[in-house]
Amino acid sequence: MKLGARFFYWMPAVVLLAGATLAVAVLTAQSSVQTQLGAIAVGEGPEAIAFDGTHIWVANQFSDTVTKIRAADAAVVGTFAVGRQPLAVLAAAQAIWVANYASNSVARLDPATGAVLASYPVGSGPGGLAFDGTHIWVANRAANTVSKLRASDGYLAGEFKVGLRPVALLFDGSSIWVSNNESDTVMKLRLSDGLVLGTYPVGDGPFGLAFDKTHIWVANFFSQSVTKLRASDGAHMGKFSVGDGPAGVAFDGASIWVSNNGSDNVMRLNPSDGAILATFAVGNGPFGIAFDGFNLWVANAGSNTVSTTALPTQSLATD
After folding, report:
1. Is the CA virtual torsion 299, 2, 227, 91 positive or negative?
2. Closest to 219 in 3D by CA, of 246, 240, 244
3. Is the pLDDT of residue 122 over 90?
4. 107: CB partners within 8 A, 6+ apart
5. Is the model's pLDDT at 16 over the cut of 60?
């Protein structure tokens, strides 16, 4: 699924794929060589992906499910029903959290069994999640708000106005960051009351966010670029060209990784200057990126797979 417009979440749910097979496609480097582990079949329209310390969790947008994959051997160990159109998944507070876009809810799952322990109403069209150590933050794409839920019991501690179509959230250790896809901005929010501390222009159609311990990285979906902002004050530190439709961005402890939804690849960047260090072919329409400490995992929304490969030695986090 290639995303050529801003409104791309209005497809009906379709079939669930129970179980997994090792697909023929592999994550192949175009400018460097890495160990290739292959691609795992999951549900329909996988967009978001998260690591809980042992397992990889994948939100299958058009199957209304999440898939649980054992990171050690890439085996699918379960597929579990959630709400309608799950767009985000997060491992936090000893639970798995899923934002159900078409159900206007966030589900809390038992990580051992995949059972839905509770479901909490939020704003319209939830599609991004973050955890600040106490609260779950939810980006409500259709409501132009973020909700703040107490993780211990799901209590709604606040709902705050942000920009147009907030799609992703990030916690940098002190503040919450929001990418506003239709405002072409990111916002920095105060944890205590959601006050907007700053609004910063970026590229066209900002989507994924990452934090490298000093800077915020923003994937600009319609600009074929990523923007680097200094987290302390939002200062613009650089804008770097990447592939077509950059959607996901992540930091592995040493490098920045970007998934290019329209180019069907991921890129590894030098965080100091944004230089492209390597480009790797993946499945169709890559979106979310996760790391398990040793391997890179990529959700391919257009091919209903997750690609995985070992990280290069120089990218392994050391802290």
Report:
1. negative
2. 246
3. yes
4. 82, 83, 97, 98, 100, 116, 118, 119, 120
5. no
Contact 126, 137 (CB under 8 A): no
- 18 near 27, Cβ under 8 Å? no
Report pLDDT digits (tens) over 248-288: 999 999 999 999 999 999 999 999 999 999 999 999 999 99
CA 240 to chain centre: 20
Neighbours of 26 (CB within 10 A): 17
For residue 294, the one-letter residue type is: F
Pairing relation of β-strands 276-281 and 28-29?
antiparallel
Say how far apart CA 273 and CA 102 lie, in whole Å.
39
Domains and CATH numbers, the chain: 22-311 (2.130.10.10)
Mean confidence (pLDDT) of the chain: 90
Say if CB 39 and CB 54 are below 8 A apart: no
CA torsion angle 20 306 184 188 (round to 10)? 90
pLDDT at 137 over 80: yes
pLDDT at 105: 99
62 residue type, one letter: F
Pairing state of beta strands 236-241 and 225-230? Answer: antiparallel
- Going by pLDDT thresholds of 50, 70 and 90, the confidence category of residue 117 is very high
Phi, psi of 276 (to 5 degrees): -80, 115
pLDDT at 29: 52
Distance CA 80, CA 89 (A): 13
